[in-house]
Amino acid sequence: MYTQRKVNILGTEYTITMCHDSEDPRMVDADGFCDETTHEIFAETYNGESENPNSKRNLLIQSQKVVRHEIVHAFLHESGLAENSFWAQNEELVDWIAIQGPKIWKAWKEAGAV
Ligand SMILES: [Zn+2]
Asked: 43 with 55: CB under 8 angstroms?
C-alpha cells in the first residue's frame, strides 16, 4: 500500500512515501532512501509479522527504524552537511541516531529536559 505524509525538516517540507519495492523502481534492493534533491523519503511499508523465514519478524519496527534513518539523512543534509562531510555520510552514525533517538527522547522527557 502506498501512503504519503509530509514532515518539516529544518524548514524544508519532505514527502515521506511508504511503499513496496514493486511500487517504485527506486526501492528495488533498498529498505529506504532519501533524495535530498527532490525532498523525498521512501521506505518500504510493513505492518505485521513476516512470513518469510529469512526475514526479521516484527516488520513494523523495522519500517519505523528505516524512516527514522532516512529522516536523519535529511536533517544532516538540510543543516548543510552533505557530500563533503565525512562524518555526516557515515551510515553507522546515521543508524545509531535512528536506533537510539527514541530512547534519548524518552530520557530527555523523563528528565524534564524537553
Ligand atoms: Zn543511510
From this structure: no
